Amino acid sequence: MTKRMLKFVSTAQTPPEKRAADDRSDDFHEIYREYIADKAQEQSSRCSQCGVPFCQQHCPLGNNIPDWLMLTAEGRLEEAFEVSSGTNNMPEICGRICPQDRLCEGSCVIEQSGHGTVTIGAVEKYITDTAWDKGWVKPIIPPKERNQSVGVIGAGPGGLAAAEQMRRKGYKVTVYDRYDRAGGLLVYGIPGFKLEKYVVERRTKRLEESGVEFVLNCEIGKDLSFDDLRARHDTVLIATGVYKGRALTMPGSGADGVYPALEYLTASNRKSFGDTVEAFDNGQLNAEGKRVVVIGGGDTAMDCVRTAIRQGASSVTCLYRRNRENMPGSQREVTNAEEEGVVFEWLAAPKAIADNGGKVSSVKAVRMRLGLPDSSGRQAPEEVPGSEFDLEADMVIQALGFDPEDLPIKFDENALTVNRWGAVRINYSTMMTSIDGVFAVGDIVRGASLVVWAIKDGRDAAEKMHEYLQKKAAELAPVAAE
């Protein structure tokens, strides 16, 4: 039934049902259940249809959120899907993993008025999941085929978004990735309880059906040189992401049982595919029966603590140097973790790793307090004298963030310039690197960030690459005519 809008006063906010903690904490299935059609329409009808939609302004993609909420409320779901997918290459993925509490929903006007935000992410997920079920998501058929080609390095969200946009314009697109599956961190970084892997696989399969070629198990600079890649294509996009985990630099950090977050998460995700993972099968990267301490406060740390719970850890503790209000990760993820049994040690930082015969035995930590703001504007944590304490641990996971790999060395290309943090420099008006015809997007440019920003960058880069290739074709046309 069609619903009228502006029902936020008479209709209460009702998020999708969340599986109980004791039901979900021993499997890797998504924790939120699907909306039924009536509930999606009801919750969409709560939108106030603001003249200035702050939800849209605070979405990196500028999604037309009020429009597809209204269409959903009116039962015009296929139109809602067309509007939603018009600005987003992966709306059902963003609906699952975006930190809506910090973006669109956090800026919702009715949330600010005390009525509870519209459940934007859940409706976004419902729209596109329904579109897949109904067969509305079709392979891309470009209006015309072009004889120019694009090489994309990296099959993560930025690379996939750019590949889709360029294929829509009729270019030949080849995506190269070092791993055996496309998807980047969507596949090997984010656990299934947030994003089940079939959701990513159907996206990459659709691109294949659309004519995008994937070359997997191919590491640029090792299996294929950067020069050879450039020779194959008329333009190249670097969308490698950032995979080099920041490591602890303190006494004992080299002890057996201290692991990088991505190594731990990748092993777990590979097991979900049924892969043989020796480091997991021999118990090294398996948290079962272990006292686990995760150091960090971002979404990767939340992924690690919740994965450890599902693997059957005897205890899981998250150590973070700031307080809850200042942590960079999603507050929803913190709540989910707490429900599942994770213990948070706020305002606490590691000082050393103690070991017994080379095997980690505890984390020596110290209490912190927040002092004056630092150069970033955030209150800087400082140690509380005499507040040292020990946390017993059999496994310590470092979730301290990620840095770029040294691409000029990796690609053997000194002409590729980077900034002081190692991120690739681009001209932001063209999105081109220091090398003509080579563009870059996503985390390798902006540093570790959100999936939605990578998609935004991929879409923007596709427009710039199109302009570049059109200009290049126009320059060659008179020569061809002669």
Structure commentary:
By secondary structure, the protein is of the alpha/beta class. 36% of the residues lie in helices and 17% in strands. It has helices at 21-24, 37-44, 54-57, 65-73, 77-87, 91-97, 109-112, 120-134, 157-168, 185-188, 197-209, 226-232, 261-272, 278-281, 299-310, 331-339, 407-410, 443-446, 451-481; strands spanning 149-153, 172-176, 213-215, 235-238, 244-245, 258-260, 291-295, 315-319, 343-345, 348-356, 359-373, 379-392, 395-398, 402-403, 438-440. Helix 5 crosses helix 8 (120-134), helix 6 (91-97) packs antiparallel against helix 8 (120-134) and helix 13 (261-272) crosses helix 15 (299-310). The longest helix is centred in the last third of the chain and has 31 residues, at 451-481. It is globular.
Concise structural overview:
Helices cover 36% and strands 17% of the residues. The chain has helices at residues 21-24, 37-44, 54-57, 65-73, 77-87, 91-97, 109-112, 120-134, 157-168, 185-188, 197-209, 226-232, 261-272, 278-281, 299-310, 331-339, 407-410, 443-446, 451-481; strands spanning 149-153, 172-176, 213-215, 235-238, 244-245, 258-260, 291-295, 315-319, 343-345, 348-356, 359-373, 379-392, 395-398, 402-403, 438-440.
What would CATH call the architecture of the largest domain?
A: 3-Layer(bba) Sandwich
Q: How many discrete domains?
A: 3
Would you give the CATH topology of the largest domain? FAD/NAD(P)-binding domain
Strand content: 15-25%
* Rg, Cα atoms, Å: 24 Å
